[in-house]
Structures
1.
Amino acid sequence: MVIGASTSNLYPALTEDALDTLLQLGFREVEVFLNTESETETGYVRQLRKKADLAGARIRSVHPYISGSEPYLLFSAYERRFQDGLHLYEELFAAAKELGAQLVVMHGDKLHGVLPVEESVGRFERVYELGKGYGVTLLQENVNRFRSSDVDYIRAMRAQLGEKAHFVLDLKQCRRYGADPLKVA
């Protein structure tokens, strides 16, 4: 078993400082939580990658700063905003590729979102396909106050997406919304 850590564990430390701390503590498997748009710029992510490489660490996943905005950007009924959200995710996928990360984590649609479940899952699939073009896999995290806290939504994703359905199981989030982790998984 390999134990990793996320730079988000040290928030509000600057991402590069949080990465330095995790590396100094001996973590060699890390998630980078990008906290703002400027942290997706090529020069910045190359510096993070260099730090990880020099320490013999691997940046396994990226968690984007726009998680709380995903319902508004990607899962609203306004198509142009969805297209703009795809552009933001394209920048995130490019940053993840530059970091060597294979995974990007999404919170997704809000609980009781405006889109029908099938369309909501379809939006996830479109973002997923964009990520595959960068060699990155999009994962849906189960998060309180998001559709992914609903076991039926997770089942709908699995049924509609098949092998494209990938998840992050957050036990703390299960506890927050009162779900049995064994039923979510």
Note: The first helix runs from residue 15 to 24.
2.
Amino acid sequence: MNNYSVLIIDDHPLIIEVYQSALQRINLEDETTVFKISTANNCDAAIKTLEKKGEFNLVFLDISLPKSSDEIFLSGEDIGIKIRKLYPKTKIIICTTYNDNYRVFNILKSINPDGFLIKNEFRSNDLVEYIKSVLEGIPAYSKTALKLMRKQLEHDYYLDEIDRSILHHLSFGTKTLDLENVIPMSRGGIASRIRKLKEIFDVVNQSNSTLVLQAKEKGFI
């Protein structure tokens, strides 16, 4: 008997049903493969479930999730980083609507998922095969994800937790001079990070608000 504990983290009920249906199909094909499924629809619920139930064999993870109430987890990416750190053996399948090569590369770099799917691209039959591959230890990436990965190999930058935290606070109107009160860096270090971020998002010599707009467009906020 192959028993798998599964956590589905997504804020769209219909998507959760799609994942559950795919797992049920696998069970119908092979009754010895059984899935015990838990769900969470935001960062708070995901962390609470992980704290209560511990390690899962398989996690489906959406990136665009409501942030946690304490603002420690700003998106599904932070949840994925946490899971990867605590439970390195857990299989993680990222399912997201983001199809920007910068955003995809950052997720691959920070989480190193076992599967990466673009939501509006795969069909239910594809999903079943992706899940089977991941459970067998074979990475599964959709065609669009593979294409974006190859394109992004030309670049070597990566937005870490501090970069994303800076963008997060800027998006709420925090002034540059006030960032050192919420970011564990010196004023000079923060300014240097912002300059680098503007280079990354191709908004050099433009305002912080323009930087925020570009970061939102690419799914980093």
Note: The first helix runs from residue 13 to 29.
